[in-house]
């Protein structure tokens, strides 16, 4: 109906009513609903006709919507965030919004703290009434066309069953559950099932070694592991269950393993400990009530690499994370009820959590889960599959784009891409050449490119273009999303203004921010809030141009980004020195055409050991086994000595220059104990590959 010219709030968003001839409200027919006017008065209304949901509100111009959000936020942040909180369903609606402080004295990160909700209800149950028959998960296996569809109703039943199975195994609120899974619907089902009963999931990427898996299991104290017999990637089996067996030799606390059938391979099952999911499933009820969770109750732990030590367990909580996943998915990718959204990330990474599952599902969208690789069976796989499934929004990594670009345009052009309307990238800086190819060849120049900058720690995208609102520039993640306050600082912490380059910090909390390092709150504070007191330090460097666009230049700490996978140089070093013939190791990143960065290791052997190609191969194999294939060094240089200062510190700056083939730019070496070491390293660098 006509509301006149009073701004109207619907589903937590402000609309300028006069722009629209018709209002569509979130309500159930016959039961009516509520909208609030700008003067705070609430008006009841009754809906005739059919029920509408949030998605159909998106018929309003999305750009207007984001502009209205920015204006509302500037006007009254507390009210804005509580309005936004209406995007999701709460069993108790919060009255508090942001209670965070980055300062040492009253350090806290807290959002919507008096609210109560359940993530699984938001991703599944609340869609049943309006679109239970809509496809929630579109599974595409390793072989083209090997797939299945789960409607929201199917998903609900499977999740309830899985939740009951977990309860049967003794899992309750707050307990940690490890998932070591292929990209099959059961991974999503198990994650949602954990959330339903208040258990905390921690997904470990299936490419990690048994040792890496064991470290994560022990760090979070999980008792239950969910896995599959095998994974299947690019036509090759991955021994998931066997790896779990290997890991569990070091994990005395684990008493139950749930094994999902993926390939049907014959795997060892240990009596009383190992359970077949297909058998458990038949014994449990398809009804399971959802646990009411406080907004700040833990939702999941995801391990990620930092500059020092072992990977840390990034902990996200329920309310703020879900809201940020929901909101960012909606304004970046969402907007059309019939969209088919395909994010190619694995659920073992944060992108898989937020944009394969929680963002799309909480918005009632259809999401693709892909269990294959871009080059199998051939380099046309992405586009063949996108065409066949009718994918409209496609989100992948710069590494995949660069690799496919190298394979040639014909692999793209032979497949129909007319369903695509929007293309996204994430995980690493995208070079303008790859950006342009993605835009011109894949997107036929029609589709906007959404380069999204964010981190495991941030829960969802922070800097990214809003389609239609922000004009894109190849290689720039553009501008902050509403509620995100980036700043650039120099090495001394001074704020840099205007067009400049510096270290990227975020000045204020946002709902999706991580809450702690699991089991080590002090490490959390030390890692992120002490480099620049009062600010969240991202570990990234960035340039800002005269128009306020951000251009992420990459990590400024000892983290490297290999094919979009984060790797701590310290982790690779400790794997190398664990080898009996290695005395010392230093690892740095080097430029790599496809992977963005490669891993370059300098290795000093024990006295009397001979360096040869055989040992180089052995060390590469060793690191694969210790950490996983993603950590395999691209180059190993045997170095009799490393460049050290008098205090014994390795000068990595020099090692990075040599690894990058920029020996000319090494600069001052006078503080080294033995400056001649540098020349010897430069001369020996040719033999590293
Ligand atoms: O260096 C940045 C890079 O990836 C890091 C975060 O890695 P991870 O926690 O594994 O999360 C990856 C997926 C969100 C960042 O510190 N990075 C991520 N996205 C971009 C990026 N660098 C440049 N441009 C991006 N769009």
UniProtKB/TrEMBL annotation:
It comes from the Bacteria. The lineage of its organism: Bacteria, Pseudomonadati, Pseudomonadota, Alphaproteobacteria, Sphingomonadales. Mg(2+) binds at residues 577, 579, 582. CoA binds at residues 233-236, 351, 563, 624. The keyword Hydrolase does not apply. GO terms for molecular function: acetate-CoA ligase activity. It catalyses: acetate + ATP + CoA = acetyl-CoA + AMP + diphosphate. Its cofactor is Mg(2+). Residues 571-649 form the AMP-binding enzyme C-terminal domain. Residues 125-509 form the AMP-dependent synthetase/ligase domain. This is Acetyl-coenzyme A synthetase.
